[in-house]
Amino acid sequence: MRAIFKREFQACFQSVIGWLFLSVTLAFYFLYYYVYNLNYGYPYISYSLNAIAFIFLVTVPVLTMRVLAEERHAKTDQLILTAPVSVGKIVTGKYLALAAVYSIAVALISLSPLFLGRFGSVPYAESYAAILGFWLYGLTCIAVGTFVSSLTESQVIAAVLTFVLLFLGYMMDGITQMISSAGNLLTRLLGCYNLTAGMERLTNGQLDITAVIYYLSMIVLFLFLTTQSIQKRRWSASLKKMGIGIFNAGFCIAAAAAVVILNLTVDVLPATLTNIDCTAAKLYSVTDDTKRILSALNQQVDLYVLASESSRDEQLAATLQKYEELSSNIQVTYVDPAVSPNFYQKYTQDQISQNSLIAVCGERSKVIDYSNIYETEVDYQTYSSKTTGYDAEGQLTSAIQYVTNEDMPTVYTVTGHGEISVSTRFKELIEKMNLGLKELNLLETDAVPQDCKALMILGPSTDFSKDDADKVRNYLADGGKALITTQYTTDAMQNFKSILEAYGLQLNNGMVIEQNQERYYQNPMYLLPEISYDTLTEKVANEYIFAPYAQGLTIQEQEQDVRSYTELLTTSEQAFLKSDVQNMTNFDKEEGDLQGPFTIGVSVIDSQSEAQLLVYTSAMLFSDSADQQVSGNNSTLFASSIRSLAAQSESSSLIVIPVKPYTQESLVLSQGTILTAGFFSVLAIPVLLIAVGVLIWMRRRKA
């Protein structure tokens, strides 16, 4: 077999065929690589690999058409039929030679993620899972072409038939949709020859073992069929021919059936056993919080998906499958809107889109519109919308908590003093935690409502009245909980400050200037504070929190104090407080400026009254713009803060799963680097390969 492999491998490069195959494959890949990865800065090479999957319809027939057909045309196949080496080894040797030629191209492609890694963060696990899928898909196509080449002595016919078979495998998804959009036994059997489905799963960020098994089994099947095709020609034209032929055909059918049964069996295995999540954000995994909630679930929850199984969102379907596998009390049902168009009206009168979800437990239900599954934002350069996050787990876990818990706490946000309103992303977080959110104007009430689980005072710009401050202090004295942010203002804010001073916190007049360059972003007032490890900050302890325009906070030591203080966010010792902010002309320290370090985030717990305060001195800390600067870390801190206030313990009803970022930050390459890399990859390498192939062919022809 080694001699056959060596002979066939050398033959590929002693003619133009091998060089042409490498050149065309790499030229098409590097063309899309130049556009998507170099020019647009996408860190995912799966974009480029998916774009060139069609190339095998042309290159593989050219590569494989001669491998066995030429032997038959030149009558050298008689040597194969009479050789002491088994036909299986001959076929395997020839196939491995072609696979080695293709693997050279894949090896060069495998270097491209390493090059991109010089210009930013690249998801290497996703990249190489995608390359694995591309490699296996190509190897399967080569196995198909090898089989077809064994059926005829005409290279042209072999090339045409290979193209037809590969085209059917490439288009099988569309063919089955045309036969039945709902799916049936025929479409399921035809789907066994869907050659691109496995590659799509592997290029979507998962190491899908079912896809790997599918491709390996298909390779083995087509090599087996190739062996049987050649083996059949050994038989003499005797009376036994018909019997042996029937046996051969039956053997081939049995082998094909075995492969079909194997793959159908593997497909029904739990995704937890067959899928390895390779995405950086773990898009296809569920968090420990969700696992804990599902393991404790003791009520039946029905999740209805408004879509047929054939038109479902595959990524969402994979997430739903994990929920079913993690709890026997979760039941997922697909409802085809074409069959039951009014089904959703039992749960909502609002119009909802296809692939939306409805969670139902007893009499309680919650609708998750499909638009909330994916987070999108507008690219104002192209005025197009792009997907930035995947929130299926967050929405599903929130809905399950909602329908299985009737006691939903209420959070009040104080208004009437120029407070900052709760921004969109943070409202969504409160909703996902299944908390009610109401506004509270202290002028219109005698006291903070009894149902107030937590009070939010977000950066007031005008002072409280003495009466308003008394209402807040009375609420806290009765064991209330409050989240307070502050903002710099020229108003003395004495009444507002009295609320903080009652709990040993002194808010210093002025704004913090950070002089440690590692502790601010672009502007010395755009703080990146040091984060102390605590249950409140454990999820962001190793990340950045963005706190622009913060004030300084000093904790007053009190004798026989019954309060415990936990500093959450602090500045460096190099920070100072700019007292005269209105007249400042630079970021230099001046006489009268107070030297740091300062506390800008603190937790206060009063052991006597059981009051709890969380105070942050940056009013913009919990804003959408600040949160985006640190990839959602500020909102994660906000969720932890609200949860600690609204529940005495880590209650499952207050668990919130943040949106998982769908894509990583774009790479940044200079125009010179783009043009240079594009020239060598798209032009120089393919042209050089063709030139070498033509030169070798011309020399052999002259010889």
Q: How many helices does DSSP assign? A: 24
Physical arrangement of strands within the biggest beta sheet: 10-9-11-12-24-23-20-17
Distance between the termini: 29 Å
Q: What is the molecular shape?
A: elongated
- DSSP E strands, number: 25
Q: Strand count, sense and closure of the main sheet?
A: 8 strands, mixed
Mean pLDDT: 87
- How many whole angstroms does the radius of gyration measure? 33 Å
Strand content: 15-25%
Description:
This protein has 703 residues and is of the alpha+beta class. Helices cover 46% and strands 16% of the residues. It contains 24 helices and 25 strands. The strands form seven sheets. Strands 10-9-11-12-24-23-20-17 form an eight-stranded mixed beta sheet. The chain has a four-stranded mixed beta sheet with strand order 4-3-5-6, covered by helices on one side. It has a three-stranded antiparallel beta sheet with strand order 7-8-25, with no helix packed on it. Helix 19 (424-432) links the parallel strand 9 and strand 10. Helix 1 (2-14) packs across helix 7 (87-109), helix 2 runs antiparallel to helix 4 (56-64) and helix 9 (124-149) crosses helix 10. The relative contact order is 0.09. Residues 236-244 and 648-652 have low confidence and may be disordered.
List the helices and strands and how they pair.
Elements: H1 2-14, H2 16-39, H3 46-51, H4 56-64, H5 69-73, H6 77-82, H7 87-109, H8 112-116, H9 124-149, H10 155-179, H11 185-190, H12 197-202, E1 206-208, H13 209-232, H14 241-267, H15 271-274, E2 275-277, H16 288-295, E3 301-305, H17 314-326, E4 330-334, E5 357-361, E6 364-368, E7 374-379, E8 384-390, H18 392-404, E9 410-415, H19 424-432, E10 436-441, E11 452-458, H20 466-477, E12 481-485, H21 494-501, E13 505-507, E14 511-513, E15 520-521, E16 523-527, E17 530-531, E18 547-548, E19 553-555, E20 563-570, E21 576-578, E22 594-595, E23 599-606, E24 612-616, H22 624-629, H23 633-646, E25 660-661, H24 671-702
Parallel strand pairs: 3-4, 9-10, 9-11, 11-12, 12-24
Antiparallel strand pairs: 1-2, 3-5, 5-6, 7-8, 8-25, 13-19, 14-21, 15-16, 16-18, 17-20, 20-23, 21-22, 23-24
Helix pairs in contact: 1-2, 1-7, 2-4, 2-7, 2-24, 4-9, 4-10, 7-9, 7-13, 9-10, 9-13, 13-14, 19-23, 20-21
